[in-house]
Amino acid sequence: MTITEEEFARLAHDVMSPLAVIVGYAELLRTRDDEKIRREAPEVISEAAEQLRAAVRALVYGTAGGDAAGHTNGSAAPARLVAGVRRRIVLVDDDPIVRRLLRTTLPSESYDVLEASDGDAALRLVDGAEPSLVVLDWHLPGRTGREVLAESKRRSPRLPVLVLTAEHDPEQRDRARRLGADVFLTKPFSPSELLEAIERLLGESALDHGA
Questions:
Q1: What are the phi and psi torsion angles at 134 (to 5°)?
Q2: How do residues 185-203 score in pLDDT, each as one tens digit?
Q3: 82: in domain
Q4: Half-sphere exposure (CA, 13 Å, Cβ side) for 142?
Q5: What 3-state DSSP class applies to 77?
Q6: Helices 191-208 and 5-31, axial angle in degrees (round to 10)
Q7: Number of domains present in the structure of the chain
Q8: Contact 55/18 with Cβ under 8 angstroms?
Q9: How far apart are CA 24 and CA 26, in angstroms?
Q10: For residue 114, is it within any domain?
Q11: Per-residue pLDDT, 167
Q12: Fewer beta carbons under 10 A from the terminal one: N or C of the chain?
């Protein structure tokens, strides 16, 4: 079976997104003594496992990747962050369980989290919510992550953007960096690595703005 580059990217996304959730919640369970995480993790991991099984079935048997995968078409903050200041983060991913992992990774006492499932909603939040940082999935339905990144940087050049992707192609990383991506993480990612990257970017942003 021959598949196009776009179909391959979709399949990679459909495999790596639920895998990121499973790996991420496993790490959170191991590293955080948090009743909320212990309570929600089994359900979320089970849901992610079902998505992963469907994506693998799509990969093996050649069914449509998106539908088969269920799509509906601690680190301490750096000292340079201002203590007690809540930062507004926009999470952009078409998969709700990935957004749930991302939201759980960000401590509620430090971050106000807004979510978008597509590029148009993301850009509305960039315009209206004045976020401190955007966490952006590279493979989105409709307006792509690449387009959202380019437009976000055009509207707010100093807005930090962290790109998440299932892509392992160095060319995609280079393309994201040329468009202004500040950090590029590959799924499955470590929640602690993600949080560390966010805190570092926000610290650098605070310095840039004289905070």
A1: -120, 130
A2: 988 889 999 999 999 999 9
A3: no
A4: 15
A5: coil
A6: 90
A7: 2
A8: yes
A9: 5
A10: yes
A11: 77
A12: N
